[in-house]
Amino acid sequence: GSLIEQLTTEKYECMVCCEVVRIVAPVWSCQNCYHVFHLNCIKKWARSPASQAEDGNSGWRCPACQNASMQVPKIYTCFCGKVHNPEWNRNEIPHSCGELCGKKRQCLDCPHLCNILCHPGPCPSCPAFVTKSCECGQTSHSVRCGQSTKIHCSNVCGNTLNCGKHSCTQVCHAGKCSPCQLTVQQVCYCGSNFKEVLCGSNEEFSDGFGSFSCQNICGKKLNCGRHNCKQVCHPQPCQLCPRLPQVVYRCPCGQTPLSKLLELGCVERKICTDPIPSCGKTCGKPLSCGSYEFVHTCESLCHEGDCKPCSHTSNIYCRCGFKKKVIRMFGWLFLFLIAAITFMCDKRCNKKRSCGRHKCNEVCCVDTEHKCSLVCGRKLNCGLHRCEEPCHRGSCQTCWQTSFDELTCYCGESVIYPPVPCGTQPPECKKPCTRPHDCDHPVYHSCHSEEKCPPCTYLTQKWCMGKHELRSNIPCHLTDISCGLRCNQMYRFRLLNVGDCNVVLFCNLMRKWPVCLTSSTWRLYLHLYTPLQRFICCHKLNLTFLFSRIAAISIATKLTDLQLGDSVEISRLITKKEMKQARLQCDEECLALQRNRRLAEALEIDDNSDPFNIRSSGPKYSDLLKEDARKDLKFVSDIEKEMRMLVEAVNKGKHTKKSHCYPPMNRDHRRIIHELAQVYGIESVSYDNEPKRNVVITAVKGKSVCPSNTLTSVLDKEMQSRPPPPIPHYKQTDKSSGNIGLSKPLKEEPVIDYFDVQD
């Protein structure tokens, strides 16, 4: 009724095109779900790949119920299928022929056809009345033909059960009667065992005495009356005695007939208990340990009964075939097979697994594919997550994780809506950058996801480094601008008071090179030991000085000689008047040193003496080690810092030993580490070959101790106590011109230790 109303009022929609089904439009109706479609729509759907069944051979599927059909509809018919291209009549149902339907109803046992006019949808149930019997067939009732319910009476079924002995006791029911549920006792064929089973089960295997086999030895007396049956429990009767004279025709090994043995004088057998004559030959019966290729036989003389165990040995190989083993056959094949299966060697497989990264490492491996069972664990393309699949070759798949939050640019104008795959970069934005900038110039670059903005390229005016001219069209981000002219700036010096009125000058523009002033001459001295970063003059000064007219250009021309350790005479550049304008004043430290000096003179204490053994109580460092430390003080300082941390860690921790591995280094640096390790009580060993030879140090708890004075502190004290290196003398070649001629001092050849004892 609903279908008729919607089709008549043109409110029914086609599921394929979602358009209204018109009264005059050709249609097709599914015979399974009764949905109505446009004929052209269902033709297109049937030919499309989406409509094909999963197996590919069952035709096309209905869009509504997914019922498969083999034939594609081609002709427009009415609902009952009698009339092709039915014409629409205002007084009839749309798309019907107006005649009786006449289709078979859905009820299988209904013989009547549909008696209403051609209609959409399923046919109604049959209204006719018929007489039907109950399930047991004892009573009958008048019911509708289309009624699907079964008729049951209140009588007992009474049909004979499967056993043929008992009747069904259930009330009238549908289908076959259930098997008989009564239990009976059955006996085995040999009569030694009993069991309870349902009545009527396994009756066809009965031999009249028993009904099943207990799988034990029969044990019944044979027809001879002297021997028992040795077969497994079997139906009656038992076989003849195998030792009867009329049954045995050959010797026990079967090689010689008894007739020949009787001709040779053997006694004729009368009964089954008489012994079977032996031929005296080798038995030769095949043993159970043999195989099709290698048959082992009995080596005993012809005998009755079972053969003895096999005395042969055989070689068995492990699963992978790498090792073999010699075992006795024992006369039993299954023992040999068990030994062959369980024998495995201890060789580990060195082949690569299927991933190409890991080794198999299986013991006695017989695998051919060597599949890797580990997890891949490599980072995916997103850079945040790791691959969780089994270890594999090639590139990992893309990260499957997604975010359901919107991904925006910095300013929020461009948006990527979820789902957003993991690792997706922020979207590009054409808007100007809105991040805070160091300058106030207009922004010409677009919005970006990087934290640092591009340098500002706005053209400005800036002074050069020497303040000579104002340069134009200079990008904003440039800071050091050169005009190409000579600098002509004066050097700037600063004074430091160090120790007992010792004066050191540091030049700011010469990267803190020390300048020492003496009372006799004004000399500019460059410290030879630059790692120490300081030089203390040993002269006791009481000077007045002022460097307002030092000719910086003259000093700069001799800068190369200064770097090589030479000195420059600058006394001609300063007048006596300028030297008297200022005088250094002694501070508290100077007074304390003067007081200590007077006390030492009163007690007659020598400056070089060590009455309290203070200087000798510390660790002893060799002269060669000290010389190497002066050449590379930073390296020695880092090594001592690492050793001190290692010793403190092992003494405070729970472990008895701790090690540290240094990177590869040259022979001189390794010798320094070995010598310092002896001072700290640390074990040191060199490994690997050149050029990758390195040192590993190991600190032992209770043995390794940090010295009171480090090598760097010892060098500092020696530097303060000893006089400075002699200042080389120079010969002035041209006094009239004022030019200073400097001669370079001779350089000593370095002492090289070619024997690395520790290495």
TrEMBL record:
Q: Which domain of life is it from?
A: Eukaryota
Cite the PHD-type domain residue spans from the record: 11-68
Q: Which residue ranges does the record assign to the R3H domain? A: 633-701
InterPro entries the record matches: NFX1_fam, R3H_dom, R3H_dom_sf, R3H_NF-X1, Zinc_finger_PHD-type_CS, Znf_NFX1, Znf_PHD-finger, Znf_RING
- GO aspect biological process, one term: negative regulation of transcription by RNA polymerase II
**Region called Disordered, residue ranges:** 715-745
What keywords tag this UniProt record?
DNA-binding, Metal-binding, Nucleus, Phosphoprotein, Repeat, Repressor, Transcription, Transcription regulation, Transferase, Ubl conjugation pathway, Zinc, Zinc-finger
RING-type domain boundaries: 14-66
Which SUPFAM superfamilies does the entry link to?
A: R3H domain, RING/U-box
Q: Name one GO cellular component term.
A: nucleus
Q: Which CDD domains match?
A: NF-X1-zinc-finger, R3H_NF-X1, RING-CH-C4HC3_NFX1
Query: GO molecular function terms here?
Result: DNA-binding transcription factor activity, RNA polymerase II-specific; RNA polymerase II transcription regulatory region sequence-specific DNA binding; transferase activity; zinc ion binding
Where is this protein found? Answer: Nucleus
Q: Which family, according to the similarity comment?
A: Belongs to the NFX1 family.
Specify the protein name: Transcriptional repressor NF-X1
- Gene name? Nfx1
